[in-house]
Amino acid sequence: MDYYAVQVWTGHESDYAERLAKDSRCQTSIAVPKRTMQIRKLGKIKKEERPVFPGYVFIPIPEGTIDPALRWIIRSTKYFVRLLPSTGDPKPIQEKDRRILAHFMSFGKVADTSKVVFDENERIVVIEGPLKGLEGSIVKINKRKGRAKVSLDMCESSFLIDLSFEILDRSSKGSGSEHGQQP
Prior knowledge:
By secondary structure, the chain is α+β, with helices and mostly antiparallel strands.
């Protein structure tokens, strides 16, 4: 299965995917990987779902090229910007990009908050979640907001995304208190 990247209006990724899915001529699903972010507004923390790759959706196509009829449907759907690398000559995303996409899609529709601890040298240790396996790509950590800025290289460009994390108490990591047992 090949995945093609489609650039759409930022903020309208889900709208584009819904419109494309409603078109009876389109017989494929659309991947819009999302992440859960903790947003603090006026002292209150709430969780929001945001796209992992703002402005992009991914369309799986059986190996081969996009047929002209499907390309027309993709192009004529509202919020379309372009196919990558160019609308005239779209190409599937490369293997390394497919691995990054598969990493985020492995969490289901929405990648939830990662669980982390900090070691004695204040380095982040990811226990579970979308940050697992991306530790080497973390550029900046904001403990107060519970966010890690991660640098990703995808579709021949580099960009930064924020992923939420929750700090687990070091003492509870191995004591069994996570499971409701008293130490």
